[in-house]
Write a structure and sequence with these properties.
The complex is a heterodimer of chains A (188) and B (181). Chain A is of the alpha/beta class. Helix content of chain A is 30%, strand content 24%. In chain A, a hairpin with a 6-residue loop joins strand 4 (67-75) and strand 5 (82-90). The longest helix of chain A is centred in the N-terminal third of the chain and has 14 residues, at 2-15. Helix content of chain B is 40%, strand content 12%. Chain B has 7 helices and 5 strands, in the order αβαββαβαβααα. In chain B, helix 2 links the parallel strand 1 (23-26) and strand 2 (52-55). Classes of the chains: A alpha/beta (188), B alpha/beta (181).
């Protein structure tokens, strides 16, 4: 396992200049790379190294850093390790190359990301609405989208739940447990 | 003979008796509550002894079970289904999501009170309600039918304007047939 991981890191770092690698415990290796290199590195992983299974494409909203992180997770049936390829795109103008010429099923993930985060994919096939029907608000999975305020404004609420509150507040009250600093920021 | 008041009463009693013991539920599940329907229908709890059984299409069904949360996308389909059903028709709101939003009270895409959009005859609370509560809900519906008080469909026809306004508020692109009952 360790040799396979080392060999994969070696291969990628010699082929791509602007890439940093990170080893994790277990069968996982991470690569961080610029967004222009994404089709190239995925083509290389698939065609040269046998990572021909696309497990997932995930998106992370880094609101404070004004960036979206897109993570491609690929798996090899021979090496039996998974490779995470991370890239960052600008949050104000999120444009990304689509990779559905490498894996056909990438289209589904890309359409979902377009709808949930508002990321534009160049040359995206079938860019019309995907899961959300008649959606008029901002992309709902962005962290600056206030779900609760939106729901309160749009849907009628039956009286009697005004005391509904964050479960963490109840925990603090009962146990006196202190919240970590980062969690205080997101308190309702 | 039907115009005679007393005979009408007898006809009503017979009709309600028949309706009460043949509740056909539309086999349509929304949200997660539909998982409680198979145990209710099968041998352990055997809802068919109350006359509750599944129906394949809206036009054959008497009861529309709203099992759990309703997204606005599903609400559109549910309204269409409800409007296609033949009289007599009843709606059972199932689970706390239909009553006050339940755990989806702050979700951006689910409605929080079913009776703003459709007339509800019986609510079953719980998250999820166990098959016993489901059966007790059906028993309550039977009681209401027997007493002639399960008049949700009538309420819907009389207050159609109000329901439509609420429905159109959460469904922006309204491409639905306008039925003329």
């Amino acid at each position: 396992m360790e040799e396979i991981k080392k060999a994969a890191i070696e291969k990628i770092t010699t082929h791509f200049r602007e890439v940093t690698a990170e080893q994790h415990n277990g069968n996982r290796v991470d690569f961080f790379i610029g967004k222009e290199e994404i089709p190239a590195i995925l083509f290389y992983l698939k065609d040269e190294m046998g990572y021909n299974h696309l497990s997932h494409i995930a998106c992370v909203d880094w609101l404070e850093e004004k960036e979206f992180e897109i993570v491609y997770i690929v798996w090899s049936y021979t090496d039996k390790i998974k490779i995470f390829v991370h890239t960052r795109v600008d949050r104000e103008n999120p444009v990304m190359d689509n990779v559905d010429m490498i894996w056909r099923q990438a289209n589904t993930y890309e359409r979902e990301m377009k709808e949930m985060y508002g990321i534009e994919f160049t040359g995206l096939e079938a860019p019309e609405e995907f899961l959300l029907e008649d959606w008029e608000g901002p992309p709902p999975m962005r962290r600056d989208f206030d779900t609760e305020a939106y729901a309160r404004e749009k849907y009628w609420e039956r009286p009697g739940r005004e005391d509904a509150r964050d479960v963490r507040e109840t925990i603090i009250e009962r146990t006196g447990e202190e919240l970590p600093d980062f969690a205080k920021k997101y308190k309702r | 003979m039907i115009n005679d008041k007393n005979s009408q009463k007898i006809v009503d009693i017979i009709q309600n008796f028949a309706r009460q013991h043949s509740i056909w539920v539309l086999a349509y599940g929304t949200g997660c509550g539909a998982i409680e329907i198979p145990p209710t229908m099968t041998s352990r709890y055997d809802a068919e002894r109350l006359g509750v059984r599944g129906a394949a299409t809206p036009r054959q069904a008497d009861v529309l079970l709203i099992t759990g949360y309703l997204t606005t996308k599903t609400l559109k389909r549910v309204i269409r289904v409800y409007e296609q059903m033949q009289d007599p028709k009843y709606v059972i709101g199932f689970g706390s999501c239909t009553i006050n939003g339940g755990m989806y009270w702050d979700s951006y895409n689910t409605i929080k009170a079913l009776d703003r959009y459709m007339p509800v005859d019986v609510y079953i609370n719980g998250c999820m309600p166990r098959p016993e509560s489901v059966l007790s809900g059906f028993a309550k519906l039977q009681e209401l039918i027997q007493a002639g008080k399960a008049d949700g469909a009538k309420k819907y026809k009389e207050n159609l304007e109000w329901y439509r306004t609420n429905q159109k508020k959460v469904i922006p692109n309204w491409h639905m047939p306008e039925y003329n009952w």
